[in-house]
Amino acid sequence: MRTKKQWFLLILKIVLVLIVLTLAGIYFFRDTLLQQALDKVKHKFNTEYNSDFHIGSAHFLGITGVELENIHLVPHQSDTLLSVQKIRTEVSLMQLLTGEVQLNNLEMQNGFIQLVKNENGRNFDVFLKKDSKEESSDEKRNYAKLANRILTKVLNLVPSEMNLENLSLRIDDMGKKVSFHMNDLKLADHQLNTQIKVTTNTFSQNWNIKGYANPRDKKADLVFASADTSKIQVPYIDEKFGLKSSFNKIRLKLDNLDMTFGKLHIDGVASIENFTINHPKIAKKDVVIQNAQFDYRFLLGSDFIAIDSTSTAQLNKIKVKPYLEYNTEEDTIYKLKLNIDKMKAQDFITSLPNGLFSHFTGMVAEGEFDYKLNFQFNKNKPHKLVFDSKFNKNNLRIVKYGEANLEKLNSEFTYRAIENGVPQRPVFVGSSNPNFTPLELISPYLKHAVLTNEDPSFMRHRGFISEAFKQSIAKNIRTKKFSRGASTISMQLVKNVFLTREKTLSRKLEEILLVYILENNRISSKERMLEVYFNVIEWGPNVYGIGEAAEFYFQKKPIDLNLNECLFLASIVPKPKKFMYQFNDEGFQKPYAEKNQRFIKNLMLRRALITSDDTIGQSIPIYVSGRARSLLRIKKVQDTIAIDSSASSINEFDF
Description:
Layout: H1 4-28, H2 30-48, E1 51-61, E2 65-75, E3 82-91, H3 93-98, E4 103-118, E5 121-122, H4 132-136, H5 143-156, E6 161-173, E7 176-188, E8 191-200, E9 204-214, E10 219-226, E11 232-233, H6 237-241, E12 244-247, E13 249-260, E14 263-278, E15 287-300, E16 304-307, E17 312-315, E18 318-327, E19 333-344, H7 345-351, E20 364-378, E21 386-400, E22 413-415, E23 418-419, E24 422-423, E25 427-429, H8 444-454, H9 466-479, H10 489-497, H11 505-520, H12 526-536, E26 538-540, E27 543-544, H13 546-554, H14 563-572, H15 591-606, H16 636-646
Parallel strand pairs: 4-6
Antiparallel strand pairs: 1-2, 2-3, 3-4, 4-5, 6-7, 7-8, 8-9, 9-10, 10-13, 11-12, 12-14, 13-14, 14-15, 15-16, 15-17, 16-18, 17-18, 18-19, 19-20, 20-21, 22-25, 23-24, 26-27
Helix pairs in contact: 8-14, 8-15, 10-11, 10-12, 14-15
């Protein structure tokens, strides 16, 4: 009779024999099993992705090696997506059994991946459709697990050893073509080295990619640089979006990718040297960032994605500690915090990107400052938006102005509006100009009406209205477009006198900085700023300043304008060249225009800027008698009748 030990040894022998027989069966029939697996893949491509997947031959090399030849992937009725002559790789048997496949060695020869968009559609659309299981799932997405799963799969597909020969990535977007061709790419002993030839419709150059890459330890330190003497030009986007960009060198470093306690940590460094961009929506000329570096730490949890506050972004000498978070735990919340520690004002000015702040060139400043921003937006509670901006200065003052000399507001100067890049006629802001009107000679009605309509708190604020700015941000986020601004009279003044009317990022950023300097350094009084504003803004086609406007519309001096005339002038400030559309073919204002002016008047009454006595006798419709009348689309006969019927009440006009 067998003992327990003997029975155990017998069972163990049987199990070992079965394993050996199974492995032997797999080994001897592995090519058949491989072919069956490939047949399943072909069937899936055909049924689920409407594509033909073809492999000329497939067989094992040794125990773990696999060789595939003449691989083609062609979506039905579309261009070939992938074609490779030969692929060799090694896969561990244990990894195949566990499902965690890692490529240990990869060789590829003579092939291409081709992404095509033409009048028939895109040859890769079928691979972008969402999984039906994913669409029907009600389970809340776990950002950390999802990102970790995707990144792990991607890194596992990067071989620890690699040799690629004569491979290309081709992109053809409605004739906009770009090709990335590698003659030879090697990854050995964790060192990556390759040269890529980039060819587009507009240029051709060679790139070098070198550095450390260890996909198993999830670490990398790669440098992209030009193999020629020129800078690397970024392809495709110049033809697609008109955005020209280039750089000397980019460094991408991954130090850590770790999942612990349900949170995913991604740490590393990204830097760029001499980055140049050019686009008409950004600036009129090249914008150059000499040195920029981002020491990042991404943190992902089950219901949030964040850039941790230990991250640091550096632009030349400007160092910013950012914190960004997207959180869906209860409501959808966006958070942004920026912190600039105390730094020299001159270091800040000299660190600004060349070409983006051209009006600051040559500016010299003394003192120091620090800055903090706290922004929070709750998508489900937009009215609770948080926008807290704090700028603390220490002995900060402007010693020398750049191109935009803000001091000129305090003296006489010549103003020239810029329309579509073309300077308009000169307007002298000073007493020698007969149309120049000092603030005290402008009707109080007009001052109050314009301030009410454009900037009610102008005399109190420091260039910006925080509440209006909050509402502007909230609306722009809700509508997902720039549908509302928060412009103040200070901003309009700076834009008119020192900048152009071009709609570029550069102009807007310069406007914000110049307004802050103007208002917070008491360079000019509020009264003088308002006086200059009234004398330089456009009030109609080729009409600049209130002196010209009062004559152009009503043949009056600014001090003689009545309440209704002032309400009309205040209403056209946002769109002065379209004033004529307020009137019908009889020369009277349309109902919507009268309603708008009543709204301004009622606001003035509520704020005690005027009294009910001021409105007495103001019910008569305004009559445009100056040169502006020739721009109204009035029927001649009806115009004559209108004049005759109004003659008794407006006999002061000379017809």
